[in-house]
Amino acid sequence: MLFTLPQEYREATADELRERIAEVRQKLGKKLCILTHHYQRREVVECGDRVGDSYDLSKTAAAQTETEIIVFCGVHFMAESADILTAAHQNVYMPNPLAGCPMADMAEMADVLEAWEYLKPFGGEEKIMPISYMNTAAGLKAFTGKHGGLICTSSNADAALKWAFDRREKVFFFPDENLGHNTALKMGIKPEEIVLWDFSRERGGLGEEEIARAKVILWKGHCHVHTNFTAAHVDEVRAKYPGVRVIVHPECTPDVVLAADGNGSTKFIVQYCEDAPAGAVIAIGTEINLINRMAHAHPDKTIFELSGQTCPVCANMYRTTLNDLAHCLERYVDIKPIKVVDPVRSDALLALERMLEVR
Question: Per-residue b/e over 156-195, b at no fewer than 16 CB within 10 Å?
């Protein structure tokens, strides 16, 4: 995909862009809703109507019954989900259409279908429930809905797995192995009942006995931001800052989650920072833009990035700038909206609606 921002937007100052964005917002009024993910740049978040994690923004998109124009400052799979959850008269736009997700790209449709065919003799739809993390393309959400499963986010992963086990014996979870692993352990599932399907290996690298005994089959995928953090980082920060509280995202590896004081979604992390008393020292293992925004919002607390030596930035979230947002708002009539069409749309909607029902 080619995307070139016109020169007038590239050369405009931040103040000029804010003024232009404000003018469009005033002109469009209730016809417009700007959604911003927690990992967006602070200046972009400040121009939005709603800020949240992928679960909250999905709920917000679904609730926008009167809004005609939804501008989603996030990544592509989020904008797709917003389109699926909204009505036909509503259009969803992305300020920067190049904002994708490497984790979502780790689960290709052909690879998932191949894995599902191999898993059929072990129970198929009668015994195995597919759960797709929000970080997947619309096609895989449709696959999940078609086979009776649901979408989950880090906010409702616990409830999603419980929902699945109430209905079937096994769970096929993709594409984030760490969120799946951490959630399964939290539910009391034994490590030997959790196996990893490696899509690069024949038959996922698993033997029949391994699949037969497994309760959770994880896809080999990860978030490159959250796997930067290590248990050694936790040890180092505890030695340097006595009394520090270490809070991490469940996309971190299981050893990091185990070593931390708490783990949860971006919404959980935001709430933790808000609720912490003045003077609290909090080391956070997640995306840097969220951490910096929390530090700025709570100057009475010491909030910093866990590793102290990396820059855990989501490059795709970082793509969206004030320049992009101003261009999208002023020229949305000339921009192609994000559209998911049937049959993918209807099947994916089933999975997303189940997600919104499960908490």
Answer: bbbbbbebbbeebebbbbbbbbbbbbbbbbeeebeeeebb
